[in-house]
Amino acid sequence: MFNEQIKVILYANDVRKASIFWQSLGFAEISFEELDGSQVAEVAMSENSTTHLVIYDRAFIEKNDDEVTEPSPALIFGSDDMMGLYKELQTKNVHLGDLAQIGEELVFNFVDADGNYFVVSGK
């Protein structure tokens, strides 16, 4: 049910500056958006890469959801069957966050046995 795309969340004090940094290392900027008064950038090693870095504004995230700004990066798994995966994880008694729609994508988080948060995003 998971697909091969993985997105790593990074928190930055200046999203534009962070995106420019990664671009200076040869990464491609996949997108740069304003969402709910904050900036979000997505960069990858190439346009075809299945691993992306999604850079969120640290202050915005801390203000709106301070329990997810871990010092280490977080993973966003991709899925082409979000409802099926969500239901499957429910049957396995995985601690799940609410399934929400953000733009055109569905998103939810889940917690592993150590309390680490992971995100799943897709359609």
Describe what is shown at a glance.
By secondary structure, the chain is an alpha+beta fold. It has helices at 15-24, 58-64, 82-91; strands spanning 2-12, 28-35, 38-44, 51-57, 74-79, 95-96, 100-102, 105-111, 117-122.
SSE layout and pairings?
Blueprint: E1 2-12, H1 15-24, E2 28-35, E3 38-44, E4 51-57, H2 58-64, E5 74-79, H3 82-91, E6 95-96, E7 100-102, E8 105-111, E9 117-122
Parallel strand pairs: 1-4, 5-9
Antiparallel strand pairs: 1-5, 2-3, 3-4, 6-8, 7-8, 8-9
Protein name: VOC domain-containing protein
Organism: Enterococcus malodoratus ATCC 43197
InterPro entries: Glyas_Bleomycin-R_OHBP_Dase
Give structural notes:
The protein has a single domain (2-122), classed as 2,3-Dihydroxybiphenyl 1,2-Dioxygenase, domain 1, CATH 3.10.180.10. Helix content is 22%, strand content 46%. The chain contains 3 helices and 9 strands; from the N terminus they run βαβββαβαββββ. Strands 1, 2, 3, 4, 5, 6, 7, 8 and 9 form a 9-stranded mixed β-sheet that branches. A hairpin with a 6-residue loop joins β3 and β4 (51-57). The longest helix has 10 residues, at 15-24. It is globular and about 45 Å long. InterPro entries: Glyas_Bleomycin-R_OHBP_Dase. This is VOC domain-containing protein.
